[in-house]
Design goal:
alpha+beta; 122 residues; six-stranded antiparallel sheet; two-stranded antiparallel sheet
Length: 122
């Protein structure tokens, strides 16, 4: 038996199968399910906190807005941004009891809020 499949692509880049073959319909549902998590991840990577972090990682703001406080898992880390990639941030944490600064690498989504001078950075 030969099946003829017509692939229709709309602006949302979803692919729909036309035809009466139940196996192809199952494949279409699996394809749609696989693309949803990626869209959710992309949406969270553009959250307001991540946008602020991207701005603060640029050369001028990196030096102008120091020290910053980062809320991570309910704990405040004080310091500055050392480096940043698309998904991670390196924070140079200042320890009051030590003379040596510690650099912590975190996922961008772990940072819950950024504070400057005790107030949320906007």
């Amino acid at each position: 038996m030969v099946s003829v499949v017509e692939v229709v692509k709309d602006e949302s880049t979803s692919i729909y199968w036309s035809g009466n073959d139940p196996e192809l319909a199952d494949n279409n549902e699996q394809l749609q399910e696989e693309t949803v998590p990626q869209q959710v991840i992309e949406g969270t990577m553009d959250s307001p906190v991540v946008k602020r972090l991207r701005y603060l990682a640029e050369p001028f703001p990196r030096n102008a807005y120091r020290p910053l406080q980062f809320l991570v898992n309910g704990q405040l880390l004080t310091g500055g941004i050392s480096a940043m990639t698309d998904s991670q941030i390196a924070i140079e944490v200042q320890q009051e009891s030590k003379d040596i600064d510690e650099i912590r690498t975190l996922d961008l989504l772990e940072v819950e809020e950024v504070f400057w001078k005790g107030a949320p950075f906007t």
